[in-house]
Write a structure and sequence with these properties.
With 323 residues, this protein is an alpha/beta fold. It has 2 domains: 264 residues, TIM Barrel (Alpha-Beta Barrel); 29 residues, no CATH class. 39% of the residues lie in helices and 14% in strands. The chain contains 13 helices and 8 strands. An 8-stranded parallel barrel has the order 1-2-3-4-5-6-7-8, surrounded by 5 helices. Strand 6, helix 7 and strand 7 form a beta-alpha-beta unit. The longest helix has 15 residues. 43% of the residues are buried.
Length: 323
């Protein structure tokens, strides 16, 4: 589907880093940045901006959890290109020291993406306003809306509509629980209560619907779309960037650099860490549950494929194991 105003945000490093505490090598991140440049995606989200603390030491949590300007500049300067995507990083409410953020004209970062749950929407919008005051483009990604109380979500949307500093408001399928008709319904809700906001969409692949749901968001008029190379991301992962670029049929995009980096970097990485659909994640998505329990199950070699036991446990039934 071709629509010129559609923009693509590559969140490979940020969402993919959730798999292994952002322990990507510099060479891997450089290769992803080179692919982002050469494929002409609009934005590249290079990581998160956590405050270093005793709970989040840099050596354990990886440099792309903290996105120091010098580290980002090292990546950006590694590839000489006529085209460069705008650089984004994500701020988690309660985990960032925005007082240490440089103004946008002094930073390699162009966009601040704020992740907030519905009960913390006031704090999320405060981060948005402070980031905009420093000159950044802004998004607000409301997390886990599939599990939110509707009246609370409506109130949060109405608050976001009053925030002039917010550039994009995101519908996020945090648990990979949505079907296409729910994408449409939630986008209608967003437009009803935040009619002044441009919308974005971020899907997860627990039920193998991230790409399909992204297509539905496009059909419903969303113009900022998240995807990751090879679908890498927490648990079941995300919408595949290569599939999305093929689908959009916009001549400005070139999918060949994405397939090149998959072949050279992601195929070897899959031998070390796991991401993507399996039945454990499918169950968590179907039941609209946070994927932490599914990730724990997949991390235990003895039970990683025990989908029957996982299903019974998830719905509160003791099955006694498979004979």
């Amino acid at each position: 589907m071709y629509r010129e105003e559609i923009k693509v945000l590559d969140c490979t490093i940020r969402d993919g880093g959730l798999i292994h505490n952002y322990q990507f090598t510099d060479d891997f991140v450089k290769a992803c940045y080179r692919a982002a440049c050469d494929s002409a995606v609009d934005f590249m989200e290079i990581g998160k901006k956590l405050a270093v603390s005793s709970d989040y030491p840099r050596d354990k949590w990886g440099k792309w959890n903290f996105c120091d300007d010098d580290d980002i500049k090292m990546i950006v300067d590694s590839h000489d290109s006529d085209y460069r995507p705008l650089i984004a990083c994500m701020f988690d409410v309660g985990r960032v020291d925005i007082g240490k953020l440089e103004s946008a004209d002094q930073s390699p970062v162009d966009m601040v993406r704020v992740a907030s749950y519905v009960p913390d929407i006031d704090k999320g919008l405060d981060l948005v306003k402070r980031a905009k005051d420093l000159g950044y483009m802004t998004t607000l990604n409301i997390m886990a809306v599939s599990a939110a109380i509707k009246s609370d979500l409506v109130e949060a949307l109405e608050q976001t509509n009053e925030c002039a500093e917010l550039d994009y408001l995101y519908l996020v399928d945090s648990f990979g629980a949505f079907y296409s008709e729910q994408i449409t319904a939630y986008l209608e809700l967003y437009r009803k209560h935040a009619p002044d906001k441009e919308l974005g969409f971020h899907g997860h692949n627990n039920q193998q619907l991230a790409f399909a749901n992204t297509q539905q968001a496009i059909i419903d008029g969303v113009n900022l779309l998240d995807a990751t190379i090879n679908g890498i991301g927490r648990g079941a992962g995300n919408c595949n960037l290569e599939l999305l670029l093929n689908f959009l049929k916009n001549p400005k995009f070139d999918v060949r650099p994405i397939y090149k980096v998959i072949q050279e970097e992601f195929v070897p990485l899959r031998r070390e860490i796991e991401w993507g659909f399996n039945d454990i994640y499918g169950i968590s998505g179907y039941l609209n549950q946070h994927p932490r329990a599914a990730m724990k199950q997949r991390g235990d070699a003895k039970t990683m494929d025990a989908c029957y036991d996982f299903y019974l446990e998830s719905i509160g039934i003791d099955g006694g194991g498979v004979a």
